[in-house]
Amino acid sequence: MDWEAALTPAQRRVVVELMARDQPRPTFDRSLGDELRARLEGSLAPLAESLDAPLRVSKSALAQVHACESNYLAELDWQGWNGATAEGEVTHRAIQLSVALDGEVPPLELVDHAMAEMEADERSSLGSFLSELAGPSRGDLRGRAATSVSTFLECWPPLRPKWHPRTELPVRVDLCGGRVALSGKIDLVLGQARGSEARCLFVDLKTGGHYPSHLDDLRFYALVQALRIGVPPFRVASYYLESASFAVEDVTDQTLEAALRRTEEGVARLIEVRAGLRPPEVTPCPRCRYCRARDTCPGAAEWARRDQQDD
């Protein structure tokens, strides 16, 4: 049977519509990465001098500080793993194994491989958490992770070697002499840049619903890639496993400009509140519902009042 004839309609949509098969790819100026770096460092270098330790900037940190600076500071301290956060890591590692292992390995077996590998890492806090997880809690995590992996395998075509598939790809750019690092981990990358031609597709795999911040996260990844190698991805996408749907954006100079402005502003805010250059702003927002400072923060009380009025 022909390879494409064996695809389900959902899998074929991924190949034709999401991966934009047979469509032209954009090219970017070879000086793009240097120009973006010069602009960011020129803006941030004076503020970066205030840091007493390197600042790691992730998509989550930018989303938090743009939503509410007070929430960002309240959530700085690591509170350890829970079932939901561990499930996401196990799911993504199992999907990574589905790409790397030969043959058709059942989803639950992929999950068990992933958990065993993580538990074997004695230096990992996640490994320790999983090792201590037992009974119904462990079974629930395994089951939900296996469902997500099964959904991915059902909705996505088998990833062909010629697509250069990479999962959980770490990316990082150091700025201002290493005082600021933009970093992240991309769920799925397909393709490779060729000269100044953008041929990469970046995909974030989502197990929940749509949120406006998802697009900002992907634009941030596109910016980091442009800074790293001088060529951004041609397209970024969020793929929603539950609905087998996706939201895409083709990367243009305007996309990178928007990402640069948001990153520039966000990093400046992060430095200012981390270095104590000014008090953090309080912004009532949906994050108030689960913020660790919600019992004492006036913003949380204001959000609760607005929420009650809306209801």
Question: What are the main properties of this structure?
Answer:
6 strands; single chain; 11 helices; alpha/beta; 6-stranded mixed β-sheet; 311 residues
- The first-to-last residue Cα distance is 55 Å
Shape: globular
**What percentage of the residues does DSSP assign to strands (E)?**
5-15%
Strand and helix order: HHEHHHHHHEEEHEEHH
Uncertain runs are none
Mean pLDDT: 92
Proportion of helical residues: 40-55%
Class derived from helix and strand content: alpha/beta
Largest sheet: 6 strands, mixed
Describe the structure.
The chain is an alpha/beta fold and 311 residues long. It is 50% helix and 14% strand. It contains 11 helices and 6 strands. Strands 1, 2, 3, 4, 5 and 6 form a 6-stranded mixed beta sheet that branches.
Task: Describe the structure in brief.
The protein has 311 residues and is an alpha/beta fold.
Which SSEs are present, and which pair or pack?
Elements: H1 9-18, H2 32-48, E1 55-57, H3 59-67, H4 69-74, H5 83-100, H6 107-119, H7 125-132, H8 135-155, E2 166-175, E3 180-190, E4 201-206, H9 213-229, E5 235-240, E6 245-250, H10 253-274, H11 298-310
Parallel strand pairs: 1-3, 4-5
Antiparallel strand pairs: 2-3, 3-4, 5-6
Helix pairs in contact: 2-9, 2-10, 3-10, 5-6, 5-8, 6-7, 6-8, 9-10
